[in-house]
Amino acid sequence: MVSFRTLLPTFVLLAFAECKINWGGCNQLQALQFNSSTIPVPFQCGTLDVPLDYSSQNSSEKLTLELLKAPAPLESKGSILVNTGGPGLPNRQDFSTLARNLIPLTGGQYDLIAFDSRGTVNTAPLTCYEDPIQEIKSFLGQKPSNKSDVAVGELWTRGTVDAEACFEAGSKNGSVMTTAFVARDLVSVVDALEEDGLLRYWGFSYGTILGATVAAMFPERIDKIIFDAVQNVHEYYHAQANFEEWELSDTLFSAIFSECVKAGPELCALAAHNETAEELEAAAYELLEISKYQPFPVGQLVVDYAAVKSTYAQSLYTQRAWPLTTALVDVLFYGTESSIEEVLSGLPHINITGLTLPGLAATDIALAGIYCSDNQVRTESFDEFVPAIDKLYSLSQIMGDLGVSSYMRCQQWKIKPKETYRGSLEHVQIKNPPLFIGNTLDGHTPLKSAYNVSASFEGSVVLEIDGYGHGSTAVPSECSLKAISAYWVNGTLPEPGTRCARDVEPYTNDWWPEVFKAAGVNETWIHKG
Ligand SMILES: *[C@@H]1O[C@H](CO)[C@@H](O)[C@H](O)[C@H]1NC(C)=O
Ligand SMILES: *[C@@H]1O[C@H](CO)[C@@H](O)[C@H](O)[C@H]1NC(C)=O
Ligand SMILES: *[C@@H]1O[C@H](CO)[C@@H](O)[C@H](O)[C@H]1NC(C)=O
Ligand SMILES: *[C@@H]1O[C@H](CO)[C@@H](O)[C@H](O)[C@H]1NC(C)=O
Ligand SMILES: *[C@@H]1O[C@H](CO)[C@@H](O)[C@H](O)[C@H]1NC(C)=O
Ligand SMILES: *[C@@H]1O[C@H](CO)[C@@H](O)[C@H](O)[C@H]1NC(C)=O
Ligand SMILES: *[C@@H]1O[C@H](CO)[C@@H](O)[C@H](O)[C@H]1NC(C)=O
Ligand SMILES: *[C@@H]1O[C@H](CO)[C@@H](O)[C@H](O)[C@H]1NC(C)=O
Ligand SMILES: *[C@@H]1O[C@H](CO)[C@@H](O)[C@H](O)[C@H]1NC(C)=O
Questions:
Q1: What is the DSSP letter of 197?
Q2: Is 346 near ligand 6, meaning CB less than 6 Å away?
Q3: Which-ligand-closest: CA of 53?
Q4: Mean pLDDT score, 265-288
Q5: Fewer CB atoms inside 10 Å of the end CB: C or N, the chain?
Q6: Dihedral, 317, 73, 523, 518 alpha carbons, nearest 10
Q7: Could you give the percent of the chain with pLDDT greater than 70?
Q8: Is the bond preceding 87 in cis, omega lying within 30 degrees of 0?
Q9: Which residues form the AB hydrolase-1 domain (predicted)?
């Protein structure tokens, strides 16, 4: 197969190379958004115009990328571009909370930069319904497929309607938001930075799909890459669903209860029932079943199957969210007196009021716009998709029914992307072999996928971190801090087979600041809290 890249005239790529990014303060709106998580260095904001459609030789239409920078506290050795995952999520916003940990992890010697990808936030968003009510309805229609016997058929039809509406109303923006275009944007940003002309890139989760794509398209433009919480890029582009992602979801869910029992009732109140980890886990699954037929009233909320399921799913990201899941089981199943609101307010960094319905609806449609035009499989009928549903259900009881609606919508997607990467993803060679990172138990991207993609990158090494959750930042570890900063600063890869120990146990209050302190990180870079 030939990459589309070879068909492009080079002038399109060079025409914008002279643009520069003017970095300045963030305007008030941006400051409000990004200052809720102050870091030891002040964020800067900037914009860069890039071609809206790189595949068009005669179009001068531009797209304005919005960038956010966390400058290096020490003398900068250059910039690292960061993608925190998705697709469809607000990259700048997520980066604004992640940056506090990324600064020490890069030795304080790199400027860190993130921009909102095409199709997200204000950057060429996909709009499928002019009527905001229809848009919200479409979002609310995305329920877990195992909610009832009839849900799954309804979801297929929801997908038919959404795919058609997006095609009718959103083809313009919707055809230029593939990962291949975002890869070109990364290179445009590198050109505009006027450093050494090379991309240093750290991708988390979906960000590893972008990393694999940009490296395959522009191997000669890459200096270093970290693939963190690696997704199987072959499945992402070529399978009906991301099956491999969910292989360890249920195993991680079990660990929530075994670690609770291990921590004891002082740290995990659910352990006070003197039940085994297996009994507590069975209670969690029973709660899920009950919530299908008789949801719970919690303040102004009806806590139904979808709400319980999504709380469980969220808890797979980080052990810091485990107390919410164990509290839910404690209060709703065992009837322990305590209020969910009280539990919520005690949890670090969980701000549910920050999530607005239109905001969530926008990330949902952005996910469709990007993933559905990247994915190259289409399924003719609902019946033909049923085996994929069976496979997802058999892989994971926690995650198996959460992606079905989104996968089914993609199988019926109609917008034709202007460019999708169809080239090889094998034998990729870049200047410094990349570092792959996987946690021992990651419920969204199993370690196996890190080994899978690493096999395509000459000389690369997989670093395993012995902990729970999604990505290296979910497991504070002095060992990974040393390995990651050594890679960025010196290009040094760990020995193959290196396994880093975690330094923070579940259900305790310590986090990265304690680990940074113990590792002798410059005090002024350590964020409090
Ligand atoms: C961010 O917050 C700090 C402390 O609250 C304040 O001093 C600073 O001016 C704010 N920065 C911006 C860009 O709003
Ligand atoms: C680009 O040029 C082609 C051929 O001349 C024309 O058909 C097309 O409409 C042009 N596209 C734009 C966006 O101007
Ligand atoms: C700690 O970082 C600050 C900048 O944030 C720098 O001025 C100072 O020299 C650093 N201290 C050491 C010991 O490196
Ligand atoms: C398409 O993207 C442009 C540029 O970001 C934006 O101004 C426009 O509103 C978007 N169109 C739709 C229909 O959302
Ligand atoms: C659990 O066991 C401890 C120690 O054996 C005992 O003190 C406590 O009362 C028990 N709690 C329950 C709820 O049975
Ligand atoms: C939660 O987020 C909302 C919206 O971003 C903000 O107004 C509110 O202050 C935040 N609450 C806390 C406790 O951070
Ligand atoms: C779907 O629901 C059935 C019946 O409630 C249950 O036995 C099964 O484990 C569920 N599977 C998934 C993947 O949710
Ligand atoms: C990687 O995953 C893909 C898709 O599941 C599979 O076809 C391929 O054989 C795997 N490669 C390796 C090296 O494991
Ligand atoms: C990079 O290498 C130098 C020289 O070997 C060493 O002193 C330094 O600690 C290394 N930096 C990191 C972050 O590992």
A1: S
A2: no
A3: 2
A4: 97
A5: N
A6: 50
A7: 90
A8: yes
A9: 80-235
Q: Which atom of ligand 6 is nearest to the CA of 351?
A: 1
Tell me the residue ranges of DSSP E strands in 313-468: 435-441, 461-468
Residue 15 has pLDDT above 60, yes or no: no
Across the range 496-517, mean pLDDT stands at 96
Distance in Å, CA 450 to ligand 8 centroid: 11
- Which ligand 2 atom sits nearest the alpha carbon of residue 53? 13
Report which ligand 7 atom has the smallest distance to the Cα of 289: 5
Residue 401 Cβ contacting ligand 7 at under 6 Å: yes
Q: Is 490 in the pocket of ligand 9 (CB under 6 A)?
A: yes
CB 65 within 8 A of CB 90: no
Ligand 6 mutation pick, 352, 353, 355, 357, max ligand atoms within 8 A of CB:
353
**Structural domains in the chain?**
4-123+176-242+424-525 (3.40.50.1820), 132-170+354-411 (no CATH), 258-346 (no CATH)
CA angle 148/152/316 to nearest 5° reads 75
Helix (H, G, I), strand (E, B) or coil at 85: coil
pLDDT bin (cut points 50, 70, 90) of residue 164 is very high
In three-state secondary structure terms, 201 is strand
Ligand (nearest to CA of 452): 8
Verify whether ligand 1 is closer than 6 Å to residue 35 (CB atom). yes
- 486 CB near ligand 9 (under 6 Å): yes
Label the pairing between strands 222-228 and 199-204. parallel
**Runs of H (alpha helix) within 218-276:** 233-238, 249-263
Question: What amino acid is encoded at 34 in this protein?
Answer: F
Q: What is the pLDDT of residue 302?
A: 85
Kindly tell me if the per-residue pLDDT of 38 is higher than 60: no
Q: What pTM was estimated for this model as a whole?
A: 0.92
Residue 475 near residue 502 (C-beta atoms within 8 A): yes
From the CB of residue 429, how many other CB atoms can be counted at a distance below 10 Å?
13
Among all bound ligands, the one having the nearest atom to the CA of 176 is 4
